[in-house]
Amino acid sequence: MKTELDPRYRAILQTVEDYCLDHENPAIVSKYARYFREGYDAYGLVDEEIHALCDKVLADHPLSMEEYAEVGWHLFATGRYEFASIAILLLESCKESYNQSTFNWVKKWLDNGVVNWAHCDIICSRLTPVFIEKGIITLIDLVPWRESDSRWTRRAVPVTLLTLRKTADPEELLAFIDSMMTEKERVVHQGLGWFLRELWKLHPQPVEEFLFKHKQQCDRLIIQYATEKMKDDKKKRFRRDKPEKPKNFKQGSPKPAKPKKAEKKIHE
User: Fold this and answer.
1) Whether residue 146 sits in one domain with residue 205
2) First CA to last CA across the chain, in angstroms?
3) Of 139, 186, 210, 247, which has the highest C-beta tally within 10 A?
């Protein structure tokens, strides 16, 4: 992804790169790489170092919220794990100034910048809930997210809805993800299953009815995640129904014998 840099943004990227090079730890990279099927392009900084780096950027390079959102786009464009983490932390520091434009930037990050589940889920736990709490967005604003070409934007829908599970009508939330239950991407299956599991803890009956309705068509990984905390006897209810056998088929009946080849006549 090619991006053009404002000199101030270039200075921030240089600060981030210099710090990461000074603190890189291949052992950490090796330890966590196995959790990322999509790849893990990282320096190996620990959380404390990433937060210290964010504080340094905020102190040395003060910008407006809109500018941090834009430089975040360039940070994501590098593809490096720590750069993207800094982008999220910088924008989180400006949450008092969030507006619709900020929300649009976050969608742009998800559509074209995010490349792993970790950053998707951090955005959905630290950024998108703020837009809901401040009344900047409602569920209607997440409708385009369900149809995004980015699997990470689509995953962000159920993961963002986690913040509403204790306050919103469960039937409304279930109706909102109904069209997503035929989703093809594994990372979205995981997000849907996670959301349904957590909603089930609070509202078991509507979630079980919802799962029963979709059990024949949805991916089994959704069911696996959603029913993880259920007792085994209840989990059985959400197994796919086995197809009915033809009425004229009798189990255990012998296969019909193959017809014998016609014997040649022997002339005396």
Assistant:
1) yes
2) 90
3) 210
